[in-house]
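step=encode ok
step=design start
structure_in=
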């Protein structure tokens, strides 16, 4: 008996791409089933992240038309990472392994075969890694690659050029469940889990329809989230900066004293003003960054639930009953 695969797809206002994505995924799953590689109970689980368009209706139609499609709908828009987590945590109860991918299929779905192959060879986590970024705009490529390098420099363990296209086995997902943080940055958390891991390379293509749901503002917020959730280096850098400035001011003190002894005390207005501004600015900046960490502690201490499930549409294949459960608070 082969293992069950679930493909989890977070969707936010994806009405333009969903039909096409669904048919391509159905083709892929059927192909794998026919080869006997995955069980008949394998599914595609679409997670509706509080979309404002027809995404939920489309998911419901898909589910009604074919039992390969399952749906999960969140109570409101919770963001990509939370939607993905909701899907993974739901799928892990039914699947042996779960692959997460975006609704726009920018990530080549043929990499699924490679991932499954590695899973069957005993890997618990298989990362999809973009080998080229030819189709991304110059700006997106520059910012994205710069971000991976910065994360690396700051000491957070992330996989270069890997987004959220990955396979995780049931036990890796069970391990993931133990990370209770609210400031979710999955590509930083997953490498902390360990177990046997591998990579599969693919080429990233363009979105075939619709617009990116990650405008620059969201992208920057996401990068900042990643850095402050995974690295305390910014705080260390502040300490270092403070130390250097103290040294500098010692030098300035000696310099001023010498000028004073020479009888040249009137000089220095400019440097005085400049240092006031510089030190004022640096102090504010430092307080701001420290505040960022305190803000995070605040959020973690409150440990608010990360999502609520409104609806689960799933036909597991064991009983043909329509499993339409109104489940509440999957992850407290
Ligand atoms: N997404 C989501 N909730 C959000 C924003 C995005 O579930 O609040 C989903 C979106 O539907 C897509 C995936 O996250 O499946 C990645 O988004 P997108 O393709 O727009 O990002 P990009 O590829 O441009 O970085
Ligand atoms: Mg995309």
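sequence_out=
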């Amino acid at each position: 008996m082969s293992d069950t695969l679930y493909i989890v797809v977070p969707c936010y206002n994806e009405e333009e791409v969903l039909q096409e994505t669904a048919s391509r995924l159905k083709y892929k799953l059927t192909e794998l089933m026919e080869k006997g590689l995955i069980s008949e109970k394998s599914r595609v689980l679409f997670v509706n992240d509080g979309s404002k368009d027809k995404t939920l209706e489309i998911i419901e139609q898909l589910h009604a038309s074919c039992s390969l499609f399952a749906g999960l709908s969140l109570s409101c828009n919770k963001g990509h990472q939370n939607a993905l987590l909701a899907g993974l945590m739901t799928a892990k109860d039914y699947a042996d392994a779960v692959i997460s991918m975006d609704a726009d299929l920018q990530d080549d779905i043929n990499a699924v075969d490679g991932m499954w192959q590695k899973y069957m060879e005993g890997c618990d986590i298989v990362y999809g890694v973009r080998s080229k970024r030819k189709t991304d705009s110059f700006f997106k490529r520059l910012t994205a690659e710069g971000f991976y390098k910065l994360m690396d420099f700051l000491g957070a363990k992330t996989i270069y050029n890997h987004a959220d296209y990955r396979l995780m086995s049931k036990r890796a997902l069970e391990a993931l469940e133990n990370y209770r943080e609210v400031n979710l940055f999955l590509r930083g958390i997953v490498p902390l889990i360990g177990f046997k891991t591998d990579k599969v390379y693919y080429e990233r293509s363009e979105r075939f329809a619709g617009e990116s749901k990650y405008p620059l503002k969201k992208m920057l917020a996401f990068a900042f989230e990643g850095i402050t959730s995974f690295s305390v280096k910014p705080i260390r850098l502040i300490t270092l900066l403070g130390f250097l400035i103290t040294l500098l001011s010692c030098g300035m003190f000696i310099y001023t004293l010498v000028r004073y002894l020479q009888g040249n005390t009137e000089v220095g207005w400019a440097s005085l003003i400049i240092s006031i501004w510089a030190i004022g600015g640096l102090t504010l900046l430092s307080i701001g960054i420290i505040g960022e960490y305190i803000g995070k502690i605040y959020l973690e201490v409150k440990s608010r639930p990360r999502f609520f499930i409104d609806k689960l549409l799933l036909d597991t294949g064991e009983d043909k009953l329509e499993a339409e459960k109104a489940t509440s608070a999957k992850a407290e």
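step=design ok
step=annotate ok -> The pocket of magnesium ion (ligand 2) is lined by residues 102, 104, 106, 207, 212 (CB under 6 Å).
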